């Protein structure tokens, strides 16, 4: 038996350690450990509730916008504040564009190197690469000249020993299967993708005033004044530039990212067999289309045992069962006691031991729904929308499964998660433009309202802000007392997925997904990275220190 | 010449947010010409690639892990910290600044001049304020950066 310790997992946000026991080339047990103390919620205590979102969006370096949305919704839920249609549409566009940016970066920059062998791209014939790329997409950027230039540039980097950004890849690993031409195509798109994540960031900045960290939210709406003739407000000129940016990004997602994903999945079809793990899912409804958060374009659902047909559809954000049944257990986390608490009563009392296989081994609490571990993320949202009868989702999921040659049930897997994210990006790129049209149409009808100004009243109020973020269901829980925050807890997608064992010994989604995973070379556990990266981990916090001494801080230990 | 002043860090972890506090300090005390951009980058990694690529010269301000006392400020030029000049470093985060610059080089868009001012933190405790020690370092570093930008042909004024 070999015990592999990967510490930290690279190409993610935050510090995650994974331990895996390997027997006969297969993982038989696993532990997921968040190695960073996360007490930043305590900063919110005693502050004014209307400012919570400003602080909350600094929780993380990548998912800034999503925390802002969840936070503002928690206050609006607590105080039962309506949100005007224009504000919902503006928020929907921001959410959709944030998703597009996030998914592009995840696929190309954070996970592609698990599947793409950069060094092999040097052996590719650029002409054949162009033929391959043109056979899967009519995107104008797929020319022989472009691929040749990228290959030249790459060659000069390899020759000087400066692979830089690609240095954490496992070149020549036996589990790498793409032909050189596909590798070169992927590398070229990897470099190009940066220009398109930027366009999404610009769209967010136009609406949100700033990126990262949008500035335009307020309790009861947005602070984005709308006047089509005024220079300083959201006007026709800004709408036009939003449209251009979002159309260009949509074309990239639908003509490059999505076809690349389908092509890679078709070659790595065996990866629909691995990484299943926890197949209970949760997704909350998203893209509100009324002022009371009761009508949504994308339904949510609770799915047990992978049975999509028996999904319990969640139609709105006031679902009392859902609100009551989310709890967090700390039996295996570095907090005091072994208890289970509802987030409104949540505590953050650290109790560090050391890494104990059968005891406490992580800073991550174990969120449970109805006492059970659940997986959140793009597959959960697609399954929910599929079960809930969203036609767009059904069409996209069925079409991509048919192209790859798999069924919907094969999406409970490592490759399924990557595929689901590409489908979701495709969907979100469309929704961005759809909500822009709806916004213009609504303003055209004469509705100029963008906020319901709200005073925080005296007394005690409890609220939850649900948001279906790129990484999955996010919820912020707030308790307000006498115009101040009395308690605040964030139950984030990565704590659902990176969760440790609970008091019943049930493994969290990362842990369960690794069991049965193949490992060809214990000292190069590429397959473990593939499965963990497929969840798009983001371990909150985001401590961000430059280490100019350049000491090697990633360690793969095989015992 | 287009200049970018990039402040990095997490505002909720006291000194870890030094770069962001630095940007706020500059906004409060100086008036910058149009060709200078002040950027609160938070803790974005690769998603800021384009901000760097659009500038001719970049001043990065961040906390560093280095030998020395809290509050010590080190200065590094591009050639001091680009990948290949140092042993391979793998950031536990998304993709670190060295990798982002290497990527820009592959894209032929790396800015000519990149200077990093790194400060050794005194505290990583949860909190939205700087430690008094690091707060005291803001004015001096601001004067230094402002003088360099003025010398490069973009006059900065006090407000």
Give a short overview.
Chain B: Belongs to the peptidase A31 family. The complex is a heterodimer of chains A (559) and B (159). Chain A is an alpha+beta fold and 559 residues long.
Layout of secondary structure:
The complex is a heterodimer of chains A (559) and B (159).
Chain A: E1 2-7, E2 16-23, E3 26-34, H1 52-56, H2 64-79, H3 85-111, H4 126-136, H5 144-159, H6 180-208, E4 217-218, E5 221-222, H7 236-267, E6 281-283, E7 286-288, E8 296-298, E9 300-303, E10 312-314, H8 320-325, E11 326-329, E12 340-341, E13 366-369, H9 378-387, H10 391-404, H11 414-444, E14 460-469, E15 472-481, E16 484-491, H12 493-497, H13 509-514, H14 526-533, E17 555-558
Antiparallel strand pairs in A: 1-2, 1-17, 2-3, 4-5, 6-9, 7-8, 9-10, 11-12, 11-13, 14-15, 15-16
Helix pairs in contact in A: 3-6, 3-7, 3-11, 4-5, 4-6, 5-6, 6-7, 7-11, 10-11
Chain B: E1 3-8, H1 18-29, E2 30-31, E3 36-42, H2 49-53, E4 57-63, E5 73-77, H3 78-81, H4 97-106, E6 113-119, H5 132-135, H6 138-151, E7 157-158
Can you tell me about this structure?
Chain B: GO terms for molecular function: peptidase activity. Chain B: Belongs to the peptidase A31 family. Chain B: Pfam families: HycI. Chain B: Keywords: Aspartyl protease, Hydrolase, Protease. Chain B: One of its GO terms (biological process) is proteolysis. With 559 residues, chain A is an alpha+beta fold. Chain A has helices at 52-56, 64-79, 85-111, 126-136, 144-159, 180-208, 236-267, 320-325, 378-387, 391-404, 414-444, 493-497, 509-514, 526-533, and strands at 2-7, 16-23, 26-34, 217-218, 221-222, 281-283, 286-288, 296-298, 300-303, 312-314, 326-329, 340-341, 366-369, 460-469, 472-481, 484-491, 555-558. The termini of chain A are close together. Chain B is of the alpha/beta class and 159 residues long. Helix content of chain B is 31%, strand content 23%. Chain B has 6 helices and 7 strands. Chain B has helices spanning 18-29, 49-53, 78-81, 97-106, 132-135, 138-151; strands spanning 3-8, 30-31, 36-42, 57-63, 73-77, 113-119, 157-158. In chain B, the strands form 2 sheets. Chain B has a 5-stranded mixed β-sheet with strand order 3-1-4-6-5. In chain B, strands 2-7 form a two-stranded antiparallel ribbon. The radius of gyration of chain B is 15 Å and the shape is globular. Classes of the chains: A alpha+beta (559), B alpha/beta (159). The interface between A and B is large, with 55 and 57 residues.
